[in-house]
Amino acid sequence: MAEFLAELYVSRANESGVRHAADALGASVRCVRSIFVPDDEICFLLFEAASVGDVVEAAHTAGLAFERISEVATPAEPTIVTDA
């Protein structure tokens, strides 16, 4: 499975509705994480799916209108930076 980051406008009043819709996208697309930035009214959703087309189709069905969807690469292990 590949990972995709979707960005969309979300009013402060509708944050919970977007998360609920993202969780209901279907078996072929899994919402891994969401980050809502209330001051900017922007939401980032990280999905696992076989293709970007699967994310687009599922979002359309759920009534979500993404501004942008990009495939992302994440490291296997998080990198921790410390002051040494």
Structural notes for this entry:
It is built from two helices and four strands; from the N terminus they run βαββαβ. The model has no long low-confidence stretch (mean pLDDT about 85). It is about 25% helix and about 35% strand. By secondary structure, it is an alpha+beta fold. The longest helix is centred in the last third of the chain and has 11 residues, at about 50-60. The protein has a four-stranded antiparallel sheet with strand order 2-3-1-4.
Give a concise summary.
This protein is α+β, with helices and mostly antiparallel strands and 84 residues long.
Cα-based radius of gyration, to the nearest Å: 14 Å
Please mark out the parts with pLDDT under 50 across 5 or more consecutive residues, or reply none.
Answer: none
Query: In terms of structural class, how would the helical and strand content be classed?
Result: alpha+beta
Number of strands: 4
Helix share bin: 10-25%
CATH topology: Alpha-Beta Plaits
Question: What is the mean pLDDT?
Answer: 83
Number of domains: 1
Element order: H for helix, E for strand: EHEEHE
Looking at the overall shape, the CATH architecture is 2-Layer Sandwich
Spatial strand sequence of the major β-sheet: 2-3-1-4
Shape: globular
Strand content: 35-45%
CATH top level? Alpha Beta
What's the N-to-C terminus distance?
A: 36 Å
Q: Main β-sheet, in a few words?
A: 4 strands, antiparallel
Helical run tally: 2
